[in-house]
Amino acid sequence: MDTQFRVVREAMNEIVIPGLYLFAGIMAYATFHHLSNALSPPRDRVQILFGSICALAIPFTLFHVQMLQAHDVVEYVRALKWDLSSAILFFILFLWFIALHTGIHHWFFPAGSSVLFAILFVVNLSLPYSLQYDHVENIGTLQLPWGEAVTRGNGHSGFWAYITISGVFAAFAYAIYALIGKYRRSRRFTDLCMLFAIGIFLLVTVLGILTRLSIVSFFEPGPIGILTMVIVMSVALTSETRRRQHESETRFRTVIEQSPIGMAFGRDGITVEVNDVYLQMFGYKDMSEVCGHPLTDQIAPQCRSEAQDRIRRRFMGEQVETSYETIGIRKDGSMFPIYISAKRLVLNDGPLTFAFLIDISQRKESEEEIKHLAFHDHLTGLPNRRLLLDRLHQALASSARSGRHGALLLIDMDDFKTLNDTHGHVMGDSLLQQVAERLKSCVREGDTVARLGGDEFVLILENLSEDPIEAGEQIKRVGLQIHESLDRPFQLDLHRHRCTVSVGATLFSDTRLTKDELIKQADIAMYQAKKAGRNTLRFFDPQMQEAINARAALEIELRKALESGQFQLYFQVQMDHLHRPIGAETLIRWIHPERGLVAPAQFVPLAEETGLILPIGQWVMETACSQIKAWEQDELTRRLVLSVNVSAKQFQQPDFILQVRDSVRSHGIKPGMLKLELTESMLIENIEDTIATMIALNEIGVQFSLDDFGTGYSSMQYLKRLPLDQIKIDRSFIHEIADNASDRAIVQTIIAMAQSLNLNVIAEGVETEEQRDILIDKGCRYFQGFLLGKPVPLRQFEASLARQ
Questions:
Q1: Which CATH number does the domain housing residue 347 bear?
Q2: Which tens digit of pLDDT belongs to each residue from 475-500?
Q3: Residues 524 and 570 placed together within one structural domain of the fold
Q4: What is the C-alpha separation between 499 and 520, in angstroms, rounded?
Q5: Is Transmembrane helix one of the keywords (predicted)?
Q6: What share of the chain has pLDDT > 70, as a percent?
Q7: Are 427 and 484 within one domain?
Q8: Quick one: how many helices (H) and strands (E) in the chain?
Q9: What is the distance between the alpha carbons of residues 188 and 582, in angstroms, rounded to a whole number?
Q10: Residue 260, preceding bond cis, omega within 30 degrees?
Q11: Given 246, 275, 298, which residue is the final one in a domain?
């Protein structure tokens, strides 16, 4: 017997066995080729599966060799089991490869077949003679036509063999169906090649099944079918990959060439390619002027090291922001602001730096224009109330640090109304402009001259003497200089005009007094100057504390009002340009048992200073949510969005998010029907905390409106990060919009900016049809003001809606 098998082994070393080893080598190369291509970015799952199929073909072929060279039944069955196990795993991957390659998203068949083949895998290893045989009687020698002899088993196939055959044919049917569908969609030659490969594989598999069932006397040619399929599919896949890469490169090239954004590519820090927009942006005519030079050459020298450091640290894996604003430098040396974003791309020929750059000069100019308009008086160019309060805050802090006194002077022009009434606003405006220029000449550098409004100006004097008496003398000298300067006649058109001013002054040396209290003191002193005959200066007298005492009494009454329920919500309607109600703003009113209706301006500032604004704000929130729930039951009001003003102190509370969530949930309302109105000053202070709070509430559906927009300064950099739904134009720009070109320009700018940020705009303080028509012409579609309806109690508000 040993002699006979030795003769057989010698005869086998002719075609089949060397050929199978060659096949295994080819499979190993195919595995390496496809997996290396698949695992390089971007990863290709189709190539990964095909490489894995090639890898499984290697053990299938090698176990096939062992089976054909088996010496006895035990060795033959062991090789047969692993040969079949490799084939089963092969078909599992084969099904998923076909599904992914053809783009079939209904994965029920691949998943179900995978489960079936997994069961067959376990059964194959657990059965004594594998899936192919119920019993193996012996092994024999098969003499091939060309004289080569191989080992074959003699046995009987049973139930599991036919189950396996059925699964294999089902897999082929699925593959042919999927590839035919893909060919119908794409009409590509590569899909026909794959169908051809599957067809050959199927024919060889049929021959192999007939051989395994002993119907045909031949060696089992499974590896030959796999090899044929791999070669054809490998060529087809490689062709398909190259086609996709070419299409991707073409699309990428089109994007670069047609993009309105400057783009640059660099390798090892050196520019290798830029687009036309980049060249135009930096003033170059030809790519050769830029390529071959450092990628950061177009960054201004003072910013270049920062850009290089950001890119280097980002590419080393650190979490560094590489999208930011910086300064660019043109070929002619001129500098301009740019937005730059740099990314690292890994391509076949190595890592590449990709940067896109945007010229933000126009945006910066618009921001500066808005900033100037928001912080300065349009008529005189002086700081307005907003900037005045900021300068006063700084002066108070500086005085507290240095121990030196400062002073606030409030200047009111005497009989200015008479000039306006007799000679018109043009004359009045001219006088205000000349007064502003003369006041600026009366103060030192570092002092502040501002226009408070109307015919009132404010001076902030800093770094006065530490001694209050000496500081008072310094103020008197400035006051005398003001009166002397303004006493000179003013040239108004064709005639000369004289005017006098009344000046009220107050000293400060620390931060115990608030900005509003200082202005109030100066205002009281100014009225004392008027009572004294005008054209004079008066200091704030401590005996004028009656107003402060009255304020303390008001605080006590305010606490009682909160406890006894004296507050009431009024509602002011908001409408669209078609005169349809879209919502309402809640406005708190104090119904005092003795004083009657107390205006918010009289108690809200006091509530904010004393902290009472927190329980008052919570009451407003609960009451508003309760009203939204009540309105849900009525067809007339269920679509109205209710706006609630939120104070800075309330918004900055650590549990503010929880308070709003609890109010919304406890009343069971739709969060989108609640809109919180915030002011610009609230947004700018603690911007990151503000954004986090807004995002948390926006995620549950609560809307946000930016109130009094235009009276402060909100950077576009911040605005585009905020989850705002609406911008509300301040009433100060609406009041004179019909007569004031500056107000119209500001409104136009605000509306254009809001539209660029996809925010809707509502104008408040609309009192006339003319104002409304101008706003509509500028693009505004939502309005609030006395023209549409005054703030009224709930029943009156609902009755007004019913009438409309």
A1: 3.30.450.20
A2: 999 999 999 999 999 998 778 888 89
A3: no
A4: 24
A5: yes
A6: 90
A7: yes
A8: 28, 24
A9: 56
A10: no
A11: 246
Quote the domain boundaries for residue 353: 259-359
Q: Render pLDDT for 360-417 as a digit per residue (tens, 0 to 9).
A: 888 888 888 888 888 899 899 999 999 999 999 999 999 988 989 999 999 999 888 8
Whether the per-residue pLDDT at 190 is higher than 80: the answer is no
- Would you say the C-alpha torsion 320, 324, 327, 331 has a positive or negative sign? positive
Smallest CA-to-CA distance from 660 within 703, 691, 690, 689 is with: 703
Instruction: Find the CATH number of the domain harbouring 60.
Output: 1.20.1070
Residue 303 CA to residue 483 CA, distance in Å, equals 50
Closest-CA residue to 726 (of 744, 709, 712, 739) = 709
Rounded to whole angstroms, how far apart are CA atoms 675 and 743?
Answer: 27
CA angle 23, 28, 32 (to 5 degrees): 145
Query: How many domains are there within the chain?
Result: 4
Beta carbons of 136 and 129 less than 8 angstroms apart: yes
Contact 706, 725 (CB under 8 A): no
Q: What is the 3-state secondary structure (H, E, C) of 247-283?
A: HHHHHHHHHHHHCCCEEEEEECCEEEEECHHHHHHHC
pLDDT number for residue 640: 96
| Pairing of the two strands 760-764 and 782-784 | parallel
Kindly state whether residue 578 falls inside one of the protein's structural domains: yes
| CA–CA dist 751, 776 (Å, integer) | 11
d(CA 791, CA 516): 27
Q: Are strands 406-413 and 456-461 parallel, antiparallel or unpaired?
A: antiparallel
CA angle, residues 115, 120, 126, in degrees to nearest 5: 130
- Are residues 527 and 640 both part of a single domain? no
Looking at the domain assignment, is residue 374 inside a domain? Answer: no
**Of the candidates 229, 308, 283, which has an alpha carbon nearest to the alpha carbon of residue 60?**
229
CATH of the domain at 515: 3.30.70.270
Burial class (CB in 10 A: 0-12, 13-18, 19+), 421: exposed
Torsion, Cα 235 241 242 246, to 10 degrees, reads 160
| Residue 596: strand pairing partners | 592
In-domain check, residue 371: no
Pairing relationship of beta strands 674-679 and 641-645 according to DSSP bridges: parallel
Asked if residue 495 and residue 581 are part of one domain, the reply reads no
Distance of CA 647 to the CA centre of its chain: 26
Q: State the CATH number of the domain containing residue 567.
A: 3.20.20.450
Q: Which residue has the higher pLDDT, 744 or 225?
A: 744
Q: Are residues 233 and 281 in the same domain?
A: no
Average pLDDT, the chain: 85
Q: Mean pLDDT check: name the lowest of 172-181, 184-193, 353-362, 686-695.
A: 184-193
Say if residue 704 is in the same domain as residue 569.
yes
| Residues 345, 294 share a domain | yes
- The answer, yes or no, to whether residue 5 has pLDDT greater than 50, is no
Rounding to the nearest 10 degrees, give the CA dihedral for residues 338, 339, 344, 347.
Answer: -70
Q: Which of 540, 571, 586 marks a domain boundary?
A: 540
User: Against a cut of 0.85, is the pTM above it?
Assistant: no
Separation CA 227–CA 235 (nearest Å): 12
448 lies in a domain? yes
Q: Which of 741, 765, 745 is nearest to 753 (CA)?
A: 745
Statement to judge: residues 481 and 397 lie in one domain: yes
